[in-house]
Every structure is written in structure tokens, then in C-alpha cells.
Amino acid sequence: MKKLLAFVIVITLVSPGLLMASSHGSAEKEGIKDYGKQPWVVDIEELTKNNQNFRTAMWTGQYLQMTVMSIPVGGEIGLEVHTNEDQFIRVEEGKARVVMGPAKDNITFDKNISDDWAIFIPAGVWHNVINRGEKPLKVYVIYSPPEHPAGTVHKTFEESEADHHHHH
């Protein structure tokens, strides 16, 4: 019985890391499932805080997508604009600087935020989220409509940038 209990404890501690450890590619290929287009209930705080990838698409439906992100110390999402998607970002853990504006060279909004803050980004607004803390910034992001192919996994910012240029 003690061996079984020890095994269950080890599996419980190791499995989230195994599920989240991945490289560039699709979630299915990396052992992470995109649960989109089916009902799904999740502890989003736990899911977000346990994610080790820069970006992991966890649910991609016809009109909505949810990704979890881990932005390293000193890292950022990258200054970008989504012309056809509204975006919601929630900080689960960490400290961030949010900048937004009507043009790449006209950033008119600048605010420091932390745990439990939400960011609403209308389509067509340039934006960036920069990790200003001393540990990875853990956020989840909702896009409407979906921004990334279902099952997208980017282990690093650099993989995300390379994939973004490949798809656009």
C-alpha cells in the first residue's frame, strides 16, 4: 500500500510537468490536448500557473480560443495588433507593464499591473505585455475569433515569432 501511495504521489507531482514540457508544434503531438469544440471545465488558475510554455492553446472553438502563457523574466508578448480579433488577458501570477495605442508609433496607454488584473484589447489596437517581475508572468488569453491554429504550442517567444511569420 505504501508503494502504491508513493507511486500516486510521484505521478501527481510529475505529470503536470510532463504535460506542459513541450517544444514547438501541435499540442496533440506534444502530449497536450486542445479541448476545443467540446465542453470543458478546468481550474484555469492551476492550468495557467503550471504552464511552462510561452504559449499553449488549450481550447479552440469556432468563435473563441483560450491559451495559457508563461512569459519569462524580462520577456514580453511582443508589440502586435490583431485587426480582426478582440482579446482578453488575465494575469494569474506576476507583475506586468501593459502598453496600448492606436498605432505602432503612437502608444497612448501605459499601466503597471499584477495578479488578478484583466486587460481588454479591442481589435485594431496595438499592444504589448512586458514581464516586469522577478519570476515568470503567468497569464491566460482569450481571443475572439481564434488567433492561433488549434493545438498550437510555442515553447519560447522565438518559436512564437517564427511560427507567426510562417502563418501570416
How does this structure look, described?
With 168 residues, this protein is of the alpha+beta class. Helices cover 22% and strands 34% of the residues. It is built from 3 helices and 10 strands. The chain has helices spanning 2-20, 44-50, 157-167, and strands at 25-26, 55-60, 65-71, 86-93, 95-101, 109-114, 118-121, 126-131, 137-144, 152-154. A 7-stranded antiparallel β-sheet has the order 1-10-2-3-9-4-7. It has a 3-stranded antiparallel β-sheet with strand order 6-5-8, with no helix packed on it. Strand 2 and strand 3 form a beta hairpin. The longest helix is centred in the first third of the chain and has 19 residues, at 2-20. The model is unreliable at 4-24 (pLDDT under 50).
Features:
10 strands, 3 helices, 34% strand, 168 residues, alpha+beta, seven-stranded antiparallel β-sheet, three-stranded antiparallel β-sheet
How would you briefly describe this protein structure?
The protein has 168 residues and is α+β, with helices and mostly antiparallel strands. The protein has helices spanning 2-20, 44-50, 157-167; strands spanning 25-26, 55-60, 65-71, 86-93, 95-101, 109-114, 118-121, 126-131, 137-144, 152-154.
> What's the total helix number?
3
Structural class: alpha+beta
Number of strands: 10
**What gyration radius follows from the Cα positions, in whole Å?**
17 Å
Helix content: 10-25%
- In spatial order, strands of the major sheet run 1-10-2-3-9-4-7
Distance between the termini: 55 Å
Unreliable stretches:
4-24
Write down the overall mean pLDDT.
84
Fraction of residues in β-strands: 25-35%
Report the biggest beta sheet as strand number plus sense, adding barrel if it closes. Answer: 7 strands, antiparallel
Order of helices and strands: HEHEEEEEEEEEH
> Rough shape?
globular
